[in-house]
Amino acid sequence: xxxxxxxxxxxxxxxxxxxxxxxxxxxxxxxxxxxxxxxxxxxxxxxxxxxxxxxxxxxxxxxxxxxxxxxxxxxxxxxxxxxxxxxxxxxxxxxxxxxxxxxxxxxxxxxxxxxxxxxxxxxxxxxxxxxxxxxxxxxxxxxxxxxxxxxxxxxxxxxxxxxxxxxxxxxxxxxxxxxxxxxxxxxxxxxxxxxxxxxxxxxxxxxxxxxxxxxxxxxxxxxxxxxxxxxxxxxxxxxxxxxxxxxxxxxxxxxxxxxxxxxxxxxxxxxxxxxxxxxxxxxxxxxxxxxxxxxxxxxxxxxxxxxxxxxxxxxxxxxxxxxxxxxxxxxxxxxxxxxxxxxxxxxxxxxxxxxxxxxxxxxxxxxxxxxxxxxxxxxxxxxxxxxxxxxxxxxxxxxxxxxxxxxxxxxxxxxxxxxxxxxxxxxxxxxxxxxxxxxxxxxxxxxxxxxxxxxxxxxxxxxxxxxxxxxxxxxxxxxxxxxxxxxxxxxxxxxxxxxxxxxxxxxxxxxxxxxxxxxxxxxxxxxxxxxxxxxxxxxxxxxxxxxxxxxxxxxxxxxxxxxxxxxxxxx
Length: 571
Ligand code: FES
What we know:
By secondary structure, the protein is α/β, with parallel strands linked by helices. Helices cover 35% and strands 12% of the residues. The chain folds into 3 domains: 37-147 and 187-347, Response regulator (Rossmann fold, 3-Layer(aba) Sandwich); 155-182, no CATH class; 373-533, IlvD/EDD C-terminal domain-like (Glucose Oxidase, domain 1, 3-Layer(bba) Sandwich). It has 21 helices and 14 strands. The longest helix is centred in the middle third of the chain and has 20 residues, at 223-242. Residues 51, 83-84, 119-120, 157, 191-192, 196, 198 line the site of FE2/S2 (inorganic) cluster.
């Protein structure tokens, strides 16, 4: 084994090494500090992140594995983001969490790290931090909850809340029934059970090679999660001994495999900004276009909500991610490695589909093309994305007049105004929701339908926004428009009544206004009024440095890796 990083703190018999060791001993044997791998367990357990509450139990299994393999396990509570709780949006804090985790990993005597995440932003922030720190790291996804049922029907987290809320507004479900479903929605510990962002990022962390193969997607209450956690603890020690770091695992091929997986599982559009941000930390040349060129050839094989019928414990029962990837082995990069030291494809041989309704065989896909489509045009010069699998087929080519909302508050104030001129063919445009504009790029793009159209039976319309959409949401929604309105993007120039053309097949998004007229327009006064630039704190730092969605919405000064070196002693 190469010299341990932690020996910079512990090896020797001088005053400083004495101080580092003595304050840590507290019952540990004399040989614990100095010569033994120090494995941090970066733990996002928090009572404010209900999806991750169970990670303390997971951490205990990791500790057992680390200690058994000769390492010293040390828990490091890190910034945790509860998607349903944090305002104004958890995405505003993703980069802050990543920066804080990276700095605390670097500042402490750590040789390797086990990353415990679950809820949407936690695995992305952990991976961004680990990529920049670049010492051996393995992710344990906390896993989805079990499926709750209401009146005999399974409930999909998020997706069924949106559906039921729309039915209440349409008058087809009573408010009493809506409220009664609340206690059935979250059946057990774990994160959302739909193919939302948490499920997607847990599975993609495995496709990237950063999870013990075959373990992502294990339901949170399943004892096999603890077994996997024990094994991951042992593995972390081995990875330190082998110097198996993120930069030696995460290649362009790893991201290629993650994009193939994203399409095959019908994963969340949020994965686009997260994968771009992780790649940016490693200097991997990944572009927005790669999601289309690599992903568009990939069939959709997994029939999960929000686009399909089943839920995450069904996917695990049906064979899990490896069974899905086995069907598309020929599309994967055979050289991309995993934390095991072996290529991902070598872990697919024994995978099997146990339920062909949940995971379709390659020859019977749900859709021939399951990937994210990347759109360009004068309304999105730097790109926008749409998830065709979650959209209505009849709206994938559409020409309609814009109904513009300056902010989400403006939307809520006017959407049910009986005088609002809107019909099923209108295109709803919501701006001021990008990284700088909100700030933080919230999940508001899937605007609810106007009540008068819901009552008339309309369930989907074309919607365009510079923000994001929850991975559990659905609809014909164009997202991540770049540049955003607040950064001077042409979205700021759209006026009510303008014609907009969406053509997903042609990958185009066009504002049908002559160039000269567009050049003469300036952003509306209402748009400027809706944007209040923050004056201090994290929001100020964020707005001054955040990049646009097409490059991952990381902070410009966090791109790249600093590594693990700390040049100066603390005393
Ligand atoms: Fe935590 Fe959905 S709210 S995963």
